[in-house]
Amino acid sequence: MCIRDLKIYSQALNGKVSYYHDRYDLEADAVLHIADGRYALIEFKLGNAEIDEGAKHLLKIRELVRAYNKAEKQVPLREPDLLMVITGGSMAYTREDGVKVIPIACLKD
Q1: What whole-number distance in Å separates Cα of residue 65 and Cα of residue 31?
Q2: Predicted TM-score of the model (pTM)
C-alpha cells in the first residue's frame, strides 16, 4: 500500500519508485526518485519498535555513499536528500539523526 501511494503521489513531480539492494546486503524498501535528481531512501516499518532498525539501515547506506565519495573524487554519487521511515504510527517527527518518521496516513500529494 505504501509503494502504491508513493507512486501515485510522486507522479505530480515526475517521480518514480524503485528498490535498493547492494552487495553488502543493505537494502531500502523504496527509493523515491524525483525528476530533478533528488531522491529519498525509505523503509517501511509497521510498529514503533522497528523504527530504530529501519533508520539504522538508511544511515548505513548514506555512510556508504559518503565513503565512496571520499575515495572517488571524479564521479561522486549524490547523497540521499531524505531518509524516511514510514510507519503505521500516528505521529510524524524528525529523529536526532535527521531521519524522518512519517505515518502512512500523512502521505499525500
Answers
A1: 14
A2: 0.88
Q: Where are the beta strands (DSSP E) in 1-109?
A: 16-21, 27-33, 39-45, 82-87, 93-94, 100-103
| CATH code reported for the domain at 2-106 | 3.40.1350
With contact defined as beta carbons under 8 Å apart, do 14 and 24 qualify? no
CB-based contact 87:100 (threshold 8 Å):
no
Beta bridge partners of 18: 31
Tens of pLDDT along the chain (109 residues)? Answer: 788 888 888 888 889 999 888 887 888 999 999 999 999 999 999 888 899 999 999 999 999 999 999 998 898 999 999 999 999 888 899 999 999 999 988 877 5
Query: What would the grid cell of residue 107 be?
Result: 502521505
- Hey, where are the domains in the chain? 2-106
